[in-house]
């Protein structure tokens, strides 16, 4: 597998400027652009396998959302919020100098895409939401909160990968090679060992979410969803604890009426590295 190109773009937030990294696959001159955005504690290299498969027909852009991967950390953790991430993506698309993009978003990356797709004159043409919707099960947020932002140090990549597997088995079956490839970009050097790639402060706004705040956010997300006019493919891990069957069904019946595809034996969230999962995404995008 070839390596993607690493680029950066300067973005403006409430506390000043920060740099966002993004990984680029395929021909820069290709007018067909696919943006793939990762989940809460992940980073852009999650999409290496999908991007490699699609780079023959797309220029594929995989950002590290601010506070993750090769992007800057924010001085104030209050900046780690979906509206700020949407603003960063608008800056990224301006840098790419494209009028339309297709979008694949896993979990948080799906919510960022949803926020952008709901805007008037949105640059998003088609949207793939990977195991996320306007209603997020609060129990899943509590589960994620048990490990997000905890100080961790690992002596070896293998030790770190084993830890990630212990909190990520809902991702579904992976070969040892697949899991090591997914895990390698999740770490940064620390002394003689490794630490997780993200700013632990991304957990601060996440942990401040109460059931009441979650309910208010849910109402706003449904309003955004109902405003979307683009085609949507909704992917769901059949065992997901974050996207309920009821929410997924509702998303097929209202607003843009998403097309739903479930993956058996997977929870939150499908990693889009298996041939089956890649084919589902590829077939949907190729309908354009």
Can you give a write-up of this model?
The chain is an alpha/beta fold. The chain has a single domain, classed as Alpha/Beta hydrolase fold, catalytic domain (Rossmann fold, 3-Layer(aba) Sandwich), CATH 3.40.50. Helices cover 35% and strands 22% of the residues. The chain is built from 10 helices and 10 strands. The strands form 2 sheets. It has an 8-stranded mixed sheet with strand order 1-2-4-3-5-6-9-10, sandwiched between helices. A two-stranded antiparallel sheet has the order 7-8. Strand 9, helix 9 (245-253) and strand 10 form a beta-alpha-beta unit. Helix 2 crosses helix 3 and helix 3 packs across helix 8. The longest helix is centred in the C-terminal third of the chain and has 17 residues, at 211-227.
Q: Round the Cα radius of gyration to an integer and report it.
A: 18 Å
Write down the secondary-structure element order: EEEHEHEHEHHHEEHHEHEH
The H-level CATH homologous superfamily, spelled out, is Alpha/Beta hydrolase fold, catalytic domain
- Determine the number of helices (DSSP H or I, runs of at least 4 residues): 10
* Helicity, as a percent range: 25-40%
- State the major sheet: 8 strands, mixed
Category by helix and strand content: alpha/beta
- The CATH topology annotation reads as Rossmann fold
Strand order of the largest sheet: 1-2-4-3-5-6-9-10
Q: What is the mean pLDDT?
A: 95
Number of domains: 1
Morphology call: globular
């Amino acid at each position: 597998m070839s390596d993607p190109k690493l680029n950066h773009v300067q973005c403006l937030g409430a506390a000043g400027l920060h740099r966002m990294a993004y990984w680029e696959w395929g021909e820069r001159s290709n007018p067909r652009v696919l943006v793939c955005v990762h989940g809460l504690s992940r980073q852009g290299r999650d999409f290496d396998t999908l991007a490699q498969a699609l780079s023959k027909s797309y220029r594929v852009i995989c950002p590290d959302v601010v506070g993750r991967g090769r992007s800057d950390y924010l001085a104030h953790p209050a900046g780690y919020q979906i509206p700020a991430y949407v603003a960063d993506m608008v800056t990224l698309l301006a840098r790419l100098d494209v009028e339309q993009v297709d979008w694949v978003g896993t979990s948080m990356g799906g919510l960022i895409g949803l926020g952008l797709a709901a805007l008037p004159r949105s640059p998003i043409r088609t949207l793939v939401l990977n195991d996320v919707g306007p209603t997020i099960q609060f129990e899943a947020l509590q589960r994620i909160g048990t490990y997000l932002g905890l100080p961790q140090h690992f002596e070896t990549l293998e030790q770190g990968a084993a830890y990630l597997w212990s909190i990520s088995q809902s991702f579904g079956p992976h070969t040892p090679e697949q899991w090591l490839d997914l895990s390698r970009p999740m770490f940064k050097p620390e002394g003689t060992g490794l630490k997780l790639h993200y700013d632990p402060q991304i957990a601060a706004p996440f942990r401040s979410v109460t059931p009441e705040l979650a309910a208010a956010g849910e109402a706003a997300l449904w309003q955004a969803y109902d405003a979307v006019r683009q085609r949507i493919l909704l992917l769901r891990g059949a065992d997901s604890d974050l996207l309920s069957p009821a929410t997924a069904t509702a998303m097929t019946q209202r607003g843009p009426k998403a097309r739903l595809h479930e993956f058996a034996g997977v929870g939150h969230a499908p990693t889009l590295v298996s041939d089956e999962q890649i084919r589902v995404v590829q077939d949907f995008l190729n309908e354009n």
